[in-house]
Write a structure and sequence with these properties.
With about 140 residues, the chain is an alpha/beta fold.
Length: about 140
């Protein structure tokens, strides 16, 4: 199953002080354990996640996070068409709280037929995507 990874979850995995850390770490173990899931994201999420880690935790955290992402998440670089579609979606929705990075994620997920997101950002469910939940 393809699972889109968002900053809200990736950052929570690597930050023990994040309120979602425990849930994120459990879900992360389920995602990377075995070969049932293929984790994907965009370079926009990588930039956002590493910038957040650098600001809040420092460069050592950036290195750890970068290495973990390189080993587990397939990152696609956003092309001009996807970027432009996301900007238009962002402007059309007129929702101040939905970021361009999120709109790129939604467009990417639609383009690739991805239904599940490893995300704690409520906008993913509001836009019709299913949150990845650790299997019981």
């Amino acid at each position: 199953m393809l699972v889109y990874c968002d900053t809200s979850a990736l950052y929570a995995v690597g930050n023990r002080d994040d309120e979602a850390h425990e849930a994120a770490a459990e879900a992360w173990e389920a995602l990377i354990g075995g070969d049932r899931h293929r984790l994907v994201s965009t370079n926009y999420v990588v930039v956002e996640t590493l910038s957040l880690a650098q600001k809040r935790q420092g460069l050592a955290a950036v290195r750890v996070l970068r290495d973990a992402l390189e080993q587990t998440v397939e990152v696609t670089f956003v092309d001009e068409t996807l970027h432009n579609a996301a900007v238009e979606d962002c402007l059309r929705t007129r929702r101040r709280g939905v970021s361009l990075v999120d709109c790129v994620g939604f467009a990417f997920m639609r383009r690739h037929g991805i239904h599940h997101a490893f995300a704690f950002d409520r906008h993913f469910t509001e836009y019709g995507f299913k949150p990845f939940v650790k299997p019981k």
